[in-house]
Amino acid sequence: MKSDIIKRPAVFTSSFKTLCMLALAVVLGAYGCSSSSMMDDTSATVPAIEPKPMTEVTPPSPDPRVGLKAGLFDAEEAIWNLNMLSQTPPPKDFVGVTNSDLAFKDNYVFQGNYNGVIVWDVSNPRSPELVVDYLCPASQSDVSVYGNLLFVSGEGFGGRLDCGTEGVQTAVSQERLRGIRIFDITNVEEPKYIANVQTCRGSHTHSLLKDPEDDENVYVYVSGSAPVRPAEEMPECVNAMPEDDPNSSLFRIEVIKVPLDNPQEAAIVSSPRIFEDLKAPPTHGLAPADLERVREAKERGAFVVEIGGSPRVLPDRFVNQLMGNVMQQRGNETGEPTAADSAALREQLPDMIAQMFGGGDAKERGPNQCHDITLYPEIGLAGGACEGYGLLLDITDPVNPKRVDAVADSNFSYWHSATFSNDGKKILFTDEWGGGGQPKCRETDPYEWGANALFTINDNREMEFQSYYKLPAPQTELENCVAHNGSLIPVPGREIMVQSWYQGGISVFDWTDVSNPVEIAFHDRGPTDSTSMGMGGSWSVYWYNGLIINSEIARGLDIFELEPSPYITQNEIDAANTIELDYLNAQGQPMFEWPTTFALAKAYVDQLDRNDGLSDADIASLRAGISSAERGNKNVLNELAGTIEAKAGSSSHSEKVHTLAQTLRDLASM
Amino acid sequence: MDILNLKSGMLFKAGKLVLILFLAAGLSACKSSQKATEEYDEEVSDTSGTHDELEKLFWARQDSARMNFTEADAEFMTKMIAHHAQALIMSRLAPENNASSQIQTLAARIINAQKDEIKSMQKWLRDREQPVPEVHIEGLNLMIHGLGKHHQHMDHTNMAGMLSPAQLKELSEAKGEEFDRLYLKYMIDHHKGAVTMVEKLFSTDGAAQDEGAFRLATDIQVDQKTEIERMQLMLDEITASK
Question: Are the CB atoms for B18 and B29 separated by under 8 Å?
Fold first, then answer.
């Protein structure tokens, strides 16, 4: 039960295992704990911090992120509901070179850098230890791990097969690496460079797919947005439109199959054209006034067609022309259309329009490439962030992903990445407007631009737009800022995400109510430079086994933990921390399944308290009962479960009441 | 147009610009960051060096990386600033020419994006001690200052996708839906021109090895390609409803 009693002890010592011992010490009363975990009856029934609903979040005011003093390693900082455990500058060879994405295995953090890969041991998160800084330059050095393998993306023109630092000076060269590098990290201190898979557009990012049905291989989906390599450099690369050459390297992604017992054999096995025939999906771009005009036109009996996903009123001139065709076809030579002609036109209209504007031109092909694909194998879906579209892909056949839905958004500039809710019923896309190098969080930049768009996924696997979320604190001209990478924090029963906003810092927000996302924690620094905008800020921030780990482009590695607040209670943090992952690639999203613990039950009680799902008296008796059960009196649990189940029907959160009742029964039977 | 004629105090070596004495410490020139590290090894003892030491190393490394560019990179930035500037002229017409709300939104976003990119490209040039084009717009007239006399009156319209003065005038006189249609048509061509400029840069030996240049060029490429698709759809819709 380690997670129930770890209350941010003042000093972390060495490993996660040590934490368990510390926790034991707390139980034995041998170690003084600074926080609110006293196990007496009052604290059991009255929480130290009263949970508050998301409608009552009161952020610090004025926002302390405004006006922070600039500095590279000494910038002024603002923090809310997070506790910073450490900030560690990059190793010397990597200082001044861009830090990029993160992957995790055991107690190791793999931090990509344009100069190679930095491996940290974070057993003691207050003092991460450098394991190795492996020099092997390539941008963007996006990283993934699986088993004893490490995968690294190379896209820029200077990446070399031999990891040399001199770059590649010619436009055509056999020394260039653009694609995926594979390392054996059996001995993590000495990564062995064992294979390359070259791709036609390099690898801007990649996503690692572990198919639940396949234990012999893993798959790497490669997204590369840079131009196609010349055929003289790589003969299979074709920089032509697909209609001119069916082998075109454009309009497709690459799937690499990696045999785990022989990773040297890794190779591209398919290049799925997941964008083919992508019609313009519905946008929500029509203004209310436009929609009103369409409605009135329909009432008048005007012809309304769907073009580009939006209803359009056909002008009379156009209708007359089409009507003429229909009359001719039906043999009406009177010159006056009959009701039957009109009905026939209505019926044929969608096909006519499709024929006229269907064509085979650029718009039919849709996007050229994805920026990033988030794979969620447990539900068989992936979220593809692909130029002007957000795609939902079926990945049950890893080699042949199939598009099942697509959305566009008139406010979105460049679809960048995706995150699913744990139940797979919601998806969040980011818009990396300006590419990450521009200051898009100024007071004058619209809230909807460079933000997240939140969608629900219905039973037909269609995405439905709900709302936007953007970093609420305005940033300066000197800070590149836009929505970027993040991950879920596994608080059971809620959608909570931690996300990078470059020099906007990191933002933790709740999107359980997908129409009303709310920020509940943050960290931010002033600009890296007080005189001009330099690249800096948070590239990626992910939750991993109780820690929030941030790859800071200029400043290195930051580690945080959540600080309990009315918006995430200690019990909810403890329940989140019962999730223990062996590894994490955020773009290969894991499904969280919470073990049955007292922390889980107490987290649900806090949530019912927060949202008035049960009466105060019921909440108090639940807390007292669970506390007494924790001290050995488990008999009360079944009784409590029965009592609240009887009230579930009248609760505003009946599903959660049932879930809690089940958790209590499970605890009783343990 | 060879902007390199204007440079002084620079040495060219195998297509590389090497700025002598570029480090405060007076180290000899080097083009790879790795080299800079080695040279700083003596000064910075370990990773737990003080903030001051690390900061010194950070800026030295950034300075060193900046000198790893080619004339093609600098030319790309210089030309793209003028190219972007014309997009501002085109987009600023939208409100007064009674464009639809959809086009006004698009134009506002293009202004926002390209103004920021112009600043980034100016900074890129300034950081590398290159002549920095300053953009001055008066109505439909684009003036580029800061490149020396030779460039003041340069003809910008010979770049890919640039509108001729006649086309610009045509656009400025179009109103309402006709403006929407023309704006989309010309902006698609204009964006395609920018993509062509990026592709030309990328096919030049030694170009875009510079991290900042690669980033700016790829960002311009992907953003504008995406926007071309979106504008093409908008244009199809307008054509369809005619």
Answer: yes
Which residues make Cβ contacts (< 8 Å) with residue A77, sequence separation at least 6? A68, A84, A523, A524, A525, A526
A310, A328, A363 - which closes a domain:
A363
Per-window interface: B 157-216 vs A, CB < 8 A: 198-199, 202-209, 211, 214-216
- What range does the domain containing B122 cover? 71-240
Q: How far is B70 from chain A (nearest CA, A)?
A: 10
pLDDT recorded at residue A356: 59
Look at residue A184 and tell me whether its pLDDT is greater than 60. yes
Chain B within 8 Å of A130 (Cβ-Cβ)?
yes
Please report residues of B whose CB lies closer than 8 A to that of A171: 202-207
Provide the mean pLDDT of chain B: 79
Which residues on chain B are in Cβ contact (under 8 Å) with A408? Answer: 230
Query: Is residue B31 helix, strand or coil?
Result: coil
Exposure b/e, A144-176, CB count within 10 A at least 16 = b: bbbbebbbbbbbbbbbbbeebbebbbebebeeb
- Give CA torsion, residues A656, A662, A663, A666, to 10 deg: -170
Tell me the percentage of chain B whose pLDDT exceeds 90: 58
Q: Which B positions 116-155 lie with beta carbon below 8 A of chain A?
A: 116-117, 119-120, 123
The residue ranges of DSSP E strands in A136-204, in sequence order, are: 140-146, 149-154, 179-184, 192-198
Looking at residue B235, what is its pLDDT? 92
Q: Residue A288: pLDDT above 90?
A: no
Enclosing domain of residue A9: 1-37
Q: What is the radius of gyration, based on Cα positions, of chain B?
A: 21
Q: A168 and A249: one domain?
A: yes
Q: What is the pLDDT of residue A123?
A: 98
Most confident of A85-94, A218-227, A301-310: A85-94
* Token reading at B41: 């090894």
| Tally of domains in chain A | 3
CB contact under 8 A, A308 and B60: no
Question: Within this chain, do residues B61 and B151 fall inside the same structural domain, yes or no?
Answer: no
CA atoms within 13 A on the CB side of B97: 25
pTM of the predicted protein model: 0.81
What are the tens digits of pLDDT across the range A428-461?
999 999 889 999 999 999 999 999 999 999 999 9
- Give the per-residue pLDDT at A603: 98
Residue of A92, A304, A409 best to disrupt the B interface, most CBs of B under 10 A:
A92
Do A81 and A212 share a domain, yes or no?
A: yes
Q: Which residues of A touch B232 (CB under 8 A)?
A: 361-363
Instruction: Please check whether residue A354 touches B, CB under 8 A.
Output: no
Global ipTM: 0.77
Same structural domain, B165 and B236: yes
pLDDT average, residue stretch A501-507: 98
Q: Are residues B75 and B48 in the same domain?
A: no
Residues B53 and B80 grouped into a single domain: no
Same domain? For A293 and A223 the reply is: no
Closest CA relative to residue B240, chosen from A348, A283, A290, A318: A318
Query: What are the chain B neighbours of A167 within 8 Å (beta carbons)?
Result: 32, 68, 209
Q: Give the up-direction half-sphere exposure of residue A630: CA atoms within 13 A in the CB hemisphere.
A: 22
Q: Do B106 and B133 have their domain in common?
A: yes
| Interface membership of A211 toward B (CB under 8 Å) | no
Residue with tokens 């065709």: A325
Task: Place B23 in a pLDDT band, splitting at 50, 70 and 90.
Answer: very low
Residue B134 shares a structural domain with residue B35: no
